[in-house]
Amino acid sequence: MRSSRDFLRFWETTGSAKTFTHPLDPELLDAYVPRGARVLDYGCGYGRLTAELVELGYGAVRGVDVSAALIDRGRREHPGLDLMRCAEFPLPFEDAAFDAALLFVVLTCVPEDAAQSAIVAELGRLVRPGGVLYLSDVPLQDDTYHRELYGRFVARHGTYGVFETADGGVFRHHAPERLRGLVRTAGFSVVRERTGSVTTPDGRTAERLQIIARREGSDPADDGPTRTGPSDRP
């Protein structure tokens, strides 16, 4: 079993040159996160979505990533963005410092259970009661290619859904209930889900799961900076 240090090394080298393709859903974002919200883009990479948030009119956006190489790339490609490299928890922000947090395809890049739990728990600390976590990730795929891929690596990694790529990356797809469980354990309640297809960095098509979850502890009568909408969950 490879260590967390091995996984992180990929994002300081080969992984830092990748072009990310997982898209933001502006309609879903707009339904729950107003333009004045304080937004944390955790696992921001080179600031692709951080920049898109700013372009959409979000004026208080902070991007954070564990990879120094990706943050350096982001500062070159998007000068002026508020990007920070943070390799350890806790992050240097006060409790409830943000109204919303994005977690886009971060858990796919973190194969270990404990590390995944730590990430979502930290976002539970940082998002204020009544605030929103917008998670988008890749669940377990049911096509022949991915079933064979998962089966090939399950003995090595001990978890069905973890797989390796030819360029040295280790990734993980999840049962949808695991993603929901991580969110709930961190103190969020799932309020909406949406599924759809996305293009992966290697040019394949995969199904994705988007989750909007509200941080528990708010006054039900408080309108706050979030708004609920109808569910897209099947």
UniProtKB/TrEMBL annotation:
- Stretch list, region Disordered: 196-234
Q: What does the record list as GO biological process?
A: methylation
- Please report a single Pfam family linked to this protein: Methyltransf_11
Task: Kindly give the InterPro entries that the UniProt entry links to this protein.
Answer: Methyltransf_11 (IPR013216), SAM-dependent_MTases_sf (IPR029063)
Describe the location of the Methyltransferase type domain by residue ranges. Answer: 40-135
Extract the coiled-coil ranges from the record: none
Q: Which domain of life is it from?
A: Bacteria
Q: Which UniProt keywords apply?
A: Methyltransferase, S-adenosyl-L-methionine, Transferase
Q: Which GO terms describe its molecular function?
A: S-adenosylmethionine-dependent methyltransferase activity
Q: What is this protein called?
A: Class I SAM-dependent methyltransferase
